[in-house]
Design a protein that fits this description.
The protein has a single domain, classed as Arc Repressor Mutant, subunit A (Orthogonal Bundle), CATH 1.10.10.10. The chain is built from 4 helices and 6 strands, in the order ββββαααββα. The strands form 2 sheets. The protein has a 4-stranded antiparallel β-sheet, with no helix packed on it. α1 crosses α3. The protein is globular and about 35 Å long.
């Protein structure tokens, strides 16, 4: 998957993936690390539906989590971005549906160049391991299955 542009704008929102920042009306929005990763994954794949299993692999690699964890992250994003920004395709997955503003994809904001995120101790890599503390490997039953799991039942 190609790297996202340094700045993506849609409506009142501005996403800065490399800085792990989401701005709403130019102000930092309170978004958790997992929700941020879900948003980036959906925007990177905005041309198609992204299955829950694919999101699990992208956002929670090497961890088994409940479907509810993903739903919570999508719900948090919808509260920030508006319900229409992320569509649910029943039985298939999710899709980022907000249109990106023309001409803003990749255009850097010269006034903010080199400005570090305020109060953010995370590493600068987009997949930094500082995650929401409640996202731990699941003990017990899980709804996440692979095709091999289904054939062995």
């Amino acid at each position: 998957m190609a790297a996202l542009a340094s700045v993506l704008r849609f409506g009142r929102h501005e996403l800065r993936p490399a800085e792990r920042r989401l701005l709403i009306d130019g102000k930092p929005a309170p978004v958790g690390a997992r929700a941020f990763d879900v948003l980036v994954a959906l925007i990177e794949r905005r041309d198609r539906v992204v299955s829950s299993n694919e999101l699990f692999e992208l956002v929670w690699p090497e961890a088994v989590v409940e479907e509810n964890n993903l739903r919570q992250q999508v719900s948090a994003l919808r509260k920030l971005l508006g319900a229409a920004a992320i569509g649910t395709i029943p039985g298939r997955g999710y899709r980022f549906t907000a249109p990106l503003d023309e001409g803003t994809e990749g255009r850097a904001d010269p006034d903010r160049a080199g400005v570090a995120p305020a109060n953010d101790s995370r590493q600068t890599h987009p997949r930094a391991d500082h995650r929401d503390s409640w996202a731990v490997p699941c003990v017990g039953n899980s709804v996440r299955r692979t095709p091999d799991d289904a054939s062995s039942q």
